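To whoever picks this up:

The nightly regression suite flagged bis(5'-nucleosyl)-tetraphosphatase (symmetrical) as changed. Nothing in the input moved, so I suspect the structure step. Input below, exactly as stored in the fixture:
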Amino acid sequence: MTDITGIRRKLEKKLKSERYEHTLGVMYTASSLAMRYDGDVKKSLLAGLLHDCAKFCSGREQIQLCNEYQIGLSESERKMPALVHARLGAYLAEHEYHIHDREILDAITYHTTGRPGMTLLEKIVYIADYIEPGRQEIEGLTLVRRAAFSDLDEAVALSAASTISYLENAGRDIDPMTVKTYEFYSKK
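Regenerated output under the current build:
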């Protein structure tokens, strides 16, 4: 049995306090969404708790760790280091926190960009990260929060659209997987 309390203690020491508070918010939001959609509450707690476990260091250091651990990165991840923590986080969840459930590891891997055809757990963590109570108010957040508890697929489409819009307006690169996620869920 996985020791959630032990993992929490480790993360509290490893992450900056704001990141740790965000992590707890995602963990509890994910468990609430799991209850709403008859998902696995324990898996949701674990995936939410560990989703940002690699954010204890800079993007450059995350890339170095990926190279060291031989974790393959996409071209987008190399261009946009803010994405790297998801793939590295799944690796750390498995190797440092001893999570071997592929569904939890995939939820961590795809919590930033999403992907077409996500599992329930992947959608839960993706949305929980976006809507957790401590999240800074951004345009469209209220709509995503409202949709999250009535239509999870709609919430995914709204979240991906909001992310794309934000990145476009900021003149930043957009990961192609986020676009694919939007396209897939906006047609449902």
